[in-house]
Amino acid sequence: MSGHGLLDLVLVAEEMGRRVSPGPLIPVNVVASAVSELGTPEQRRSVLPGIVAGETLATWCLAEPPGTWSAEALRMEVRTKGQGFVVDGVKGPVEAAADADCFLVAARFDGAPTQFLVDSHTPGIMVTPAEGLDLVRRFSTVTFDGVVVPASAVVGEIGDAAGEIERLVDLAVVLQCAEMAGAVDQMLDVTIGYAFDRFSFGRPLASYQALKHRFADLKLWVEACLATA
Q1: How many CA atoms lie within 13 A of 118 on its CB side?
Q2: Predicted confidence (pLDDT) per residue in 54-90, tens digit
Q3: What is the DSSP string of 112-135?
Q4: The domain spanning residue 32 has which CATH number?
Q5: Among residues 31, 41, 28, 59, which one has the least CA distance to residue 152?
Q6: Which of 100, 180, 192, 224 stands the most exposed, by the fewest C-beta atoms within 10 Å?
Q7: What is the pLDDT of residues 104-128, one digit of tens each?
Q8: Is the distance from CB of 193 to CB of 199 less than 8 angstroms?
Q9: Does 11 reside within a domain?
């Protein structure tokens, strides 16, 4: 709307954080960004309209157990088979994997990071739900066992995804920071509201100077969180 998509999206993420809204906002937008930036015309046609319409759920398979988010930590290897590739390995944690229609998979081809757009219903993919503490997010482990993908599945250039992965991690971190900043801002509002509603010795808790000092400190921290995000 403003001409700067990420700034608009940060405002959405902040509001979703305030409401502890469920849904895979971050991975869907990471995949959308990757496909819109580096995807082929066919990849864009097959993924982006569905994402925009809310009909396609995409997620990012970058981390591998125990969960390191960087191109340098990639261990999954992809090998050629005919005119395509074979993907073997395990990814996790992967957000919304159980409901995803497609995966953006980061792996190594000849030792160099490469990303692939893979249909979640491709034979050889197994999704195992994982337990988590966050009630509004669902994570899984995704196992790729001899998954065959065509050459057209490559997003960007083969072996040249390190910089793009770093950019996507930055995007995910920005959105996560915005969500958390919105959440802590809301929690401060809730806490201050409670302090006005709760009475002690005939006075609202918020009227006591010692608590006012604490609230002032908390407000400074929240403003720092918003500024940093």
Answers
A1: 33
A2: 999 999 999 998 878 888 999 999 999 998 999 999 9
A3: EEEEEEEETTSTTEEEEE---S-T
A4: 2.40.110.10
A5: 41
A6: 224
A7: 999 999 999 999 999 999 999 999 9
A8: no
A9: no
The answer to whether residues 167 and 132 belong to one domain is yes
Indicate if 113 and 71 belong to the same structural domain: yes
Tokens of 117: 């757009």
Q: 189: domain range?
A: 174-228
Q: Which two tokens stand for residue 118?
A: 């893979």
Describe the crossing of helices 25-38 and 162-197 by its angle, rounded to 10 degrees: 150
Same domain, 180 and 87: no
Asked whether residue 6 is domain-assigned, the answer is: no
Give the burial class of 53: count Cβ atoms within 10 A of its Cβ; 0-12 exposed, 13-18 middle, 19 or more buried: exposed
Peptide bond into 150 cis (omega under 30): no
Burial of 77 by CB count in 10 Å (0-12 exposed, 13-18 middle, 19+ buried)? middle
> What is the pLDDT of the chain when averaged over all its residues?
94
What is the pTM assigned to this prediction? 0.90
- Domain membership flag for residue 88: yes
Q: Do the bridges between strand 77-81 and strand 102-109 make them parallel or antiparallel, or are there none, so unpaired?
A: parallel
Neighbours of 42 (CB within 10 A): 10
Tokens of 106: 């980061």
Chain CA centroid to CA 97, Å:
12
